[in-house]
Design a protein that fits this description.
single chain; 248 residues; alpha/beta; TIM Barrel; eight-stranded parallel beta barrel; 11 helices; 8 strands; 46% helix; 15% strand; binds 2-phosphoglycolic acid
């Protein structure tokens, strides 16, 4: 199981380091657990967090598609790797919505990470309109085909998929465990058909979208849900830890 916090555009450096250290303290008190804890923090925090955390794997929230050059404001996979960051989120719906990211660009970013030995949490998910029109699976299939079809089987060792219905992100509205399981099962079957049984079994598929202490348990009990990508609730150490506990 994986529980990953996505801090988004929140916390100053000091606030972020405090949050990370509170999470670390609480995890150590929980004792041995089969849960991998990840925090995707703002770029400004990453170096310090890599050096001050032990039980938390530090991720970036995004990465450039470019290797280097005249791309003002971008941060490359090689730069992240050089400070010990473990991986990056790629294709978050907020990047798609506010920064015009499409499936092809997302595929390039995934490749860039994998070339630099960075892990990827790849996000996919439908809009409310898609769900209402009964197009959820079609949209998911289009997204994952474009992003993942060209990857070879070995590359899936470094890839985690996060299903995040856009209508459930930051809205307080969560997909029901049944709705989430349905899509997770669909993704797992796609992996089986396209990348084989082994990839389909070992790839971890996280659910994201208003996961909270009150609903984590039920979501994580579903057979194809291997953890969560947590936004709002990852900013409160107590809530985040309760979600980690629900995964343990
Ligand atoms: P949320 O965000 O938990 O605040 O809905 C999840 C995400 O965007 O990854």
């Amino acid at each position: 199981m994986i529980v990953a916090g996505n801090w988004k555009l929140n916390t100053t450096l000091i606030e972020g380091l405090n949050l990370a250290s509170r999470i670390e303290d609480s995890i150590s008190k929980l004792g041995p657990m089969e849960v991998r804890v990840i925090a995707a923090a703002p770029y400004t925090h990453l170096d310090r967090m890599v050096n001050s955390t032990d039980r938390i794997d530090v991720f970036a929230q995004d990465v450039s598609r470019h290797e280097s050059g005249a791309f003002t404001g971008e941060v490359s996979a090689g730069m992240l790797k050089s400070i010990g960051v473990k991986g990056s989120i790629v294709g978050h719906s907020e990047r798609r919505a506010y920064h015009g990211e499409n499936d092809e660009l997302i595929h390039e970013k995934i490749q860039m990470c994998l070339q630099h030995d960075l892990e990827v949490i790849y996000c996919c998910g439908e809009q409310l309109e898609d769900r209402k029109n009964g197009h959820t699976m079609k949209v998911i299939e289009r997204q994952i085909s474009k992003a993942l079809s060209k990857l070879n089987v070995d590359q899936f060792d470094s890839l985690v998929i996060a299903y995040e219905p856009v209508w459930a992100i930051g809205t307080g509205e969560t997909a029901t465990p049944r709705q989430a399981q349905e899509v997770h099962e669909f993704i797992r079957n796609w992996l089986k058909q396209n990348k084989g049984e082994e990839v389909s079994e070992k790839t971890q598929i996280l659910y994201g979208g208003s996961v909270k202490p009150g609903n984590a348990d039920e979501l994580f009990q579903k057979p194809d849900i291997d953890g969560g990508l947590i936004g709002g609730a990852s900013l409160k150490a107590e809530d985040f830890i309760q979600i980690v506990r629900a995964a343990g």
